[in-house]
């Protein structure tokens, strides 16, 4: 090791302890990590896990969840239109697409969309029509209340419309 030479105003990089040994191998140095170093590493690993793990989740699953929320939001929009207009508004689900329809049965684009139907990656299966009354509850084609809750399935997720309250979950 180099000789410790003091230049005025500069402290030596390695300072010999009282017994003349290296400070990293002296009698008080036991090796290992301090508690602060361990906590700092754990905090950094926690932050990385919080940022990276959600991105590692399958993109297909994220897409299904996003489409689930979009369908639920658009069903609620059709429900609010029916309540404002005295009923008759609804949404039709067929194959890999769905659309909103007015009381006359004409396709109407959802707000912010130019197309009158919305395509999804994960289909709905058989055609299903959801219509709402002026109270926001699901009804059949003759405006009669349904006998059971209405369920729409897509990509392993299901939306349920309560037959009594019209709540969409």
Summarize the structure.
With 169 residues, the protein is an alpha+beta fold. The chain has helices spanning 35-56, 59-85, and strands at 90-94, 97-101, 107-108, 118-119, 128-132, 138-139, 150-154, 157-161.
Which range does the strand content fall in? Answer: 15-25%
Number of helices: 2
| Structural shape | elongated
Average the pLDDT over all residues and give the rounded result: 83
**What level of helicity do the residues show?**
25-40%
Q: Residue ranges: pLDDT <50 for 5 or more in a row?
A: none
Distance between the termini: 73 Å
Q: Give the biggest sheet.
A: 6 strands, antiparallel
Order of helices and strands: HHEEEEEEEE
β-strand number: 8
Judged by helices, strands and strand pairing, the structural class is alpha+beta
**What Rg do the Cα atoms give?**
33 Å
Description:
The chain has helices at residues 35-56, 59-85; strands spanning 90-94, 97-101, 107-108, 118-119, 128-132, 138-139, 150-154, 157-161. With 169 residues, it is α+β, with helices and mostly antiparallel strands. It has a domain at 60-161. The strands form two sheets. Strands 1, 2, 3, 4, 5 and 6 form a six-stranded antiparallel beta sheet that branches. A two-stranded antiparallel sheet has the order 7-8.
């Amino acid at each position: 090791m180099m000789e410790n030479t003091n230049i005025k105003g500069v402290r030596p990089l390695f300072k010999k302890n009282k017994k003349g040994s290296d400070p990293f191998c002296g009698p008080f140095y036991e090796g290992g990590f301090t508690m602060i170093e361990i906590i700092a590493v754990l905090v950094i690993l926690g932050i990385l896990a919080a940022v990276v793990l959600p991105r590692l989740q399958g993109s297909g699953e994220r897409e299904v969840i996003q489409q689930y929320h979009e369908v639920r939001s658009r069903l609620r929009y059709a429900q609010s239109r029916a309540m404002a207009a005295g009923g008759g508004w609804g949404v039709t689900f067929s194959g890999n697409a769905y659309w909103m329809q007015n009381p006359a049965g004409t396709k109407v684009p959802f707000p912010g969309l130019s197309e009158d139907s919305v395509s999804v990656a994960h289909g709905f299966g058989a055609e299903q029509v959801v219509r709402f009354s002026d109270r926001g509850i699901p009804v059949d084609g003759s405006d009669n209340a349904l006998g059971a809750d209405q369920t729409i399935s897509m990509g392993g997720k299901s939306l349920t419309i309560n037959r009594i309250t019209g709540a969409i979950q």
